Amino acid sequence: MSTATGRATGLIDRLYATFESPRRQMLLMIAIVFVMAILPLIMGRYTTTIMTNALLYVVLALGLNIVVGYAGLLDLGYAAFFAVGAYSIGILTAQFDWNFWLAIPPALIAACIAGVIIGGPTLRLRSDYLAIVTLGFGEIVRFSARNLEITGRASGLSNIPEPSLFGYVIDSYVDFYYVFLLLAVCAVIASHRLYHSRLGRAWLYVRHDEDAAEAMGINRVRVKLAAYVTGSVFGAIGGIFFSVNLGAISPESFSFEQSVLILMAVILGGMGKIPGVILGAFIIILGPELLRDLGELRLLLFAVIMLLIMLLRPSGIWPERRN
Amino acid sequence: MPAFETFLQAIVNGLVLGSFYALIALGYTMIFGVIKLLNFAHGDVYMVGAFVGFGVLSLISGVVGAGWFGLSIAILVSMIAVGCLGVIIQRVAYQPMLSAPRLSILITALAVSLVLQNSALSLTDGKYTAFRTDLGFGGFEFGRLFISHQAIVLVAIAALLMIALELFVSRTMYGRAMRAVSIDKDMCRLLGINVTRVVAITFLIGSGLAAAAGTMAGAYYGSIWYFMGFLIGLKAFTAAVIGGIGSITGAMLGGLILGLLESFGTLVPFIGSEWKDVFTFSILILVLVFKPTGLLGKSEVERM
């Protein structure tokens, strides 16, 4: 590596080191949330909508981060969990006229079941097989959504009603911005708590050395399953609010490309590191907006960046550091 | 008896589909054998092969026509060019990652796949490209059963390539080295085998076979597009797993089995063509979960 890039990396590392202490990180987070909270007052509708989307991706990326970053399991079908949440809410509220809030628990249970179905029998597989199985599972969910009557076939579901809370109907774009901001903050707090929990340490251990973890009395299948189920709950929550925000969903929202985009957010930012993953989610959503003139080349650009990151800085832009 | 003819037709269709799967599955299995990498980009290498074959055929069709002779040249050139591309991919993307954690190299392979796919997307604007040939529509008719000349020749070419590969692997020095590397890389290095070169040759052959399949599939189905490698790549991987990943005979067998299964699957009224892919993926998941070593694979202990 040339001295110039070496110096630049050193500088960036020092910048990260400044934010290494938990207190500073906390302050930074509060500052960011504060800025985010007043953003819709300044920004127009267009920017606010994009930021809402970015916040959705923060939730999704943090969820996938639990599976990939914490537990070290490559999941290429994460959009399936997102789809399960979105379709459960869509079917219950639009087809069966359920109240939105009452429909959330069944949607989350459905996501947990999906997590167990995909996780349960496959977690003993080698890592690359696991990746393929999750990919296959994601495609099965999408094809099923496209072929089944209850999911509205290829055209999907529409007329998903807006939720109301104590008589206040959540319907404007600003309302949804705040809903997603709240979700993102909750996701960050939950991820942080999980990371420092007993389970979080078990994930770390399993990721680094599965056999040693097993020898130390960690039930690796149960621990990995916990990662899948937690990740699927994050994904389903994202899906639930995604579907009521748009009011309509179709199978193509949950394609393999979606799974890859979420994975890219996790990898770009740095697997396992919460601020890194948040940064990655924002880059994934805001990057294409800034590069709109490039058209289809921007996807190529993203793919090249992803490749370069893996080759040059495999731990991401803001990598994890843990002693 | 129409039912019997439908049955035979399904066999014919399954064989054509199966030989495409088999050619791609061979690449997966060989590359997996030497560097234990699931090459996610392999389906996209197949796609690039189809585009290169198409490009070559359009260039030379003015001189030699777009018949069987022209197509053979297109297949050959595409095999060589895309084989070299495979070697470049291996050198640039996979070689530096060989000692990295498994997760990193898998993601790198995924990134390579996306780079190839999106390059093709930008170059073609995501549109289907018509792959025109003058192969004719002749064939043999037995009542309602129809076997086109195209199907016969393509299956024959696929069979020839597979026999050549089998001979290469079992009879030549590099074939023997390849088998040795897949068993114990470090030992091979100690014994003076140029492992890097063996790996390069494996990528050359694997990618070349995928390119042949791509060009042939383009000519057979009449159109190509940037996303054509995704689904078939997954299915060929399924084929490789069914046969037992790492086993060359297994990949051929798995390809044919999957082609036939799919072709018969569409006949079952409950499955139908719209559930065809769900059917294939279910097979994949069932095989991976219950018999991950496949039909001919060896079991191995892995630390993830």
Number of contiguous helices of chain B = 11
Number of strands of chain A: 2
Rg over CA atoms of chain B:
19 Å
Q: Choose one word for the global shape of chain A.
A: globular
Average pLDDT number of chain A: 85
Membrane topology (chain B): Multi-pass membrane protein
GO biological process, one term (chain B): L-isoleucine import across plasma membrane
Pfam family, one (chain B): BPD_transp_2
Protein name (chain B): ABC transporter permease
What does this entry look like structurally?
- The complex is a heterodimer of chains A (323) and B (304).
- Chain A is mainly alpha-helical and 323 residues long.
- Chain A has a domain of 212 residues.
- In chain A, 73% of the residues lie in helices and 1% in strands.
- In chain A, strands 1-2 form a two-stranded antiparallel sheet.
- In chain B, β2 and β3 form a beta hairpin.
Compile the SSE list and pairings:
The complex is a heterodimer of chains A (323) and B (304).
Chain A: H1 3-18, H2 22-42, H3 45-70, H4 79-95, H5 100-119, H6 127-147, E1 164-165, E2 168-169, H7 173-195, H8 198-208, H9 210-215, H10 220-246, H11 256-269, H12 274-290, H13 297-312
Antiparallel strand pairs in A: 1-2
Chain B: H1 2-35, H2 42-64, H3 68-94, H4 102-124, E1 129-130, E2 139-142, E3 145-148, H5 149-171, H6 173-183, H7 185-190, H8 195-221, E4 223-224, H9 228-243, H10 248-265, H11 276-290
Antiparallel strand pairs in B: 1-4, 2-3
Helix pairs in contact in B: 1-5, 1-6, 1-8, 1-9, 1-10, 2-3, 2-4, 2-8, 2-9, 3-8, 5-6, 5-8, 6-8, 9-10, 9-11, 10-11
The gist of it:
The complex is a heterodimer of chains A (323) and B (304). Chain A is mainly alpha-helical and 323 residues long. Chain A has helices spanning 3-18, 22-42, 45-70, 79-95, 100-119, 127-147, 173-195, 198-208, 210-215, 220-246, 256-269, 274-290, 297-312; strands at 164-165, 168-169.
